[in-house]
Amino acid sequence: MSDFIQANLPYLLAGISVGGQYALIAIGYTMVYGILRLINFAHGDVFMAAGLIMVFAAASLPMYISIPLVIIVTVLLGFVIERVAYKPLRSAPRMSVMISAIGVSYLIQNCALYFTGGLPRVFPSIPWLTDTVTIFGAITKRVTVITPIITLILVVALVLFIKKTKVGMAMRAVSRDFQTSQLMGIKIDNVISMTFIIGCFLAAIGALLYFSNYQSVIPTSGSMPGLKAFVAAVFGGIGSIPGAVIGAFLIGIVENIIKGVGWTTFSDAFTFVLLIVILMVKPTGIFGEKKTDKV
Amino acid sequence: MSNILEIKDLHVSYGGIKAVKGITFDVEEGSIITLIGSNGAGKSTTLNTIAGLIKPESGSIFFEGNEITGKDPNFIVSSGITLVPEGRKIFPDMTVLENLKIGAYLRKDDLSDDIEWVYSLFPRLKERSWQLGGTLSGGEQQMLAVGRALMSKPKLIMMDEPSLGLAPIVVRDIFSIIREINKQGTTILLIEQNANMALKTANHAYVLETGRIILQGSGEELLGNESVRAAYLGS
Ligand SMILES: Nc1ncnc2c1ncn2[C@@H]1O[C@H](COP(=O)(O)OP(=O)(O)O)[C@@H](O)[C@H]1O
Ligand SMILES: [Mg+2]
């Protein structure tokens, strides 16, 4: 048994780590869905864009400027996407907004293609984060160990923010009922923007951690992690933050254990089998809302 | 006393379908005014338009002498008008206390005195302070909706059918609270299908029928009116 754990420790660590990265993306999906009932297909691409912005920023700027810059620009990108592509469709059928989201997704990928010339770009190694460490005899990068810690700190901060602050209360109100929220004096557009800002902030952090591990960025780099984070959000019950986080860690760990036992080819397939199973067995996910209100 | 609210020739439609067809009425400061009418008469549409949720087609709305026509709800609330919406619409997964706090969303000052004041009006809410809104009974939810509206310290509070679906004894409680709130200085614009209670409570009443005001007078006058008795009081 302990031999098994010893042998699989690197995979387990990698799983927890990538799970944390998926979680940081999944929160963006689940929060936006919670408030707009929109699956924001562009979210994975925003994540990729954050990675790419880091590539270009770090090429000419020191780390202590590049990192905050990436976070700020990604947050701005999310804010602008919402204002330009989703806000004008506020009273349009939900399908129109979804189509707009798919359009934004392709637009970001195409811009990335233009800026990279289609070549994989090497992600700068962030000192300290990419140093090698030994943990329980397993050799890994420090980012592997740091990711779940950062993720948990951010998730706890976010949950407290939503539960305890006035803005958080407004977010809960708007995700329940637009009209009544307006009657309280809440400006729903501001609350929706706030949701995108938080989602993109977390995706930017997730990107810095993820690409530190995977080393290169291509225009479609956001697709797979985005899809897995989305499945994590569905698994956890889309709209639920703790659900998305649990789903993300589960997917990260299981896919790496599958790699550990030598079935690497099937590690991605697991995510999709999981999606199909949830949709068949419990479409509302483990923490999903019981009633489908606001339809 | 002056008019706190003046509605002039208000027209409202939903994508071409006219719901309110040119209504004019005033709400005197410090009074209880009621708008009665059967289902579909345009009562909720009128209140939602004043609250800024719907933009009118034409006509104007003045509050304390200033035009507020077509302003957004945020502006309306901050000017001092609150709506207790039809069906109460409390936030079911927030606690009673949170529901009260969100009613004061635009306020920056200390809320504790006003929370105590609302709890003194509705002792049942105080006992249930930590309970989720969704677990309250219909009557308690209505009390919470009224309490939540009071938390914004409105000058004018509009209520859309507060008695809807409540047991008669609870309706009496709600109406006595309405009178109490009015006595403490808040002007009230009340919409009801329950014409009997509303006319007994109101200083002045308007009868709305298919988007038009067809009759007005003091509460007593309308209670004595033949056609009102036939149409709304079932006698
Ligand atoms: N959202 C809406 N879309 C279209 N028509 C509506 C809408 N809301 C109300 N109406 C119509 O407007 C008219 C007035 O409705 P309403 O103001 O809700 O009446 P009341 O509150 O007096 O029962 C009705 O004919 C109703 O069908
Ligand atoms: Mg109505």
Radius of gyration of chain B: 17 Å
Strand content of chain B: 25-35%
Helical content band of chain A = over 70%
Q: Separation of termini of chain A?
A: 50 Å
N-to-C SSE string of chain B, H for helix and E for strand = EEEHEEHEHHHHEHEHEEHH
Number of strands of chain A: 4
- The strands making up the biggest β-sheet of chain B line up spatially as 6-7-8-3-9-10
> What is the straight-line distance between the termini of chain B?
35 Å
Percent range for β-strand residues of chain A: under 5%
List the strand order in the largest sheet of chain A. Answer: 1-4
Principal-axes geometry of chain A comes out as: globular
Shape of chain B: globular
Question: Fraction of residues of chain B in helices?
Answer: 25-40%
Quote the CATH topology of chain B: Rossmann fold
- Hetero groups: adenosine-5'-diphosphate, magnesium ion
Overall pLDDT confidence of chain A:
92
Query: Segments of chain B where pLDDT lies below 50 for 5+ residues?
Result: none
Q: Count of helices of chain B?
A: 10
Reading off the top of the CATH hierarchy, the class of chain B is best stated as Alpha Beta
* Assembly context of the chains: heterodimer
For the record, the count of structural domains of chain B works out to 1
Describe the structure.
The complex is a heterodimer of chains A (295) and B (235). With 295 residues, chain A is mainly alpha-helical. Chain A has a domain at 24-221. Chain A is 73% helix and 4% strand. Chain A has 11 helices and 4 strands, in the order ααααβββααααβααα. In chain A, β2 (132-135) and β3 (138-141) form a beta hairpin. The termini of chain A are far apart. Mean pLDDT of chain A is 92; it is low at 291-295. Chain B is α/β, with parallel strands linked by helices and 235 residues long. Chain B has one domain (3-232): P-loop containing nucleotide triphosphate hydrolases (Rossmann fold, 3-Layer(aba) Sandwich). Chain B has 10 helices and 10 strands. Chain B has helices spanning 43-50, 73-79, 96-103, 112-121, 123-127, 138-150, 168-183, 195-201, 219-224, 226-232, and strands spanning 3-14, 17-28, 32-36, 58-63, 66-67, 81-84, 156-160, 187-192, 204-209, 212-218. Chain B has a 6-stranded mixed sheet with strand order 6-7-8-3-9-10, with helices on both faces. In chain B, β1 (3-14) and β2 (17-28) form a beta hairpin. In chain B, α3 (96-103) packs parallel to α6. Chain A binds chain B through residues 166, 169-170, 172-173, 176-177, 179-180, 182-187, and chain B through 51-53, 72-74, 77-78, 82-83, 85, 89, 91-94, 98, 101-103, 105-106, 148, 152. The complex binds adenosine-5'-diphosphate (ADP) and magnesium ion (MG). The site of magnesium ion has 4 residues of chain B, from α1.
